Amino acid sequence: MTLVAILTARKSAVVTFPSQAAFAAYRGDQRLRALARLRAEAVVHTELLVGEDGPRYNAD
Fold this sequence. Notes:
The protein is 35% helix and 0% strand. The chain has helices at residues 20-28, 30-34, 36-42. It has a domain at 16-45. With 60 residues, it is mainly α.
């Protein structure tokens, strides 16, 4: 009898970029593109949520 367990790992990352143009430059970087094949083999799904910075809260 063979049992196959499929484990789903989830990872969240919060990153910020100073502008949409800076994000586009990051995504277009040749070093990142060179890793695309490895990423495709390791990552099943990616979801990007775009937001905007809110107010800064002080601890005072």
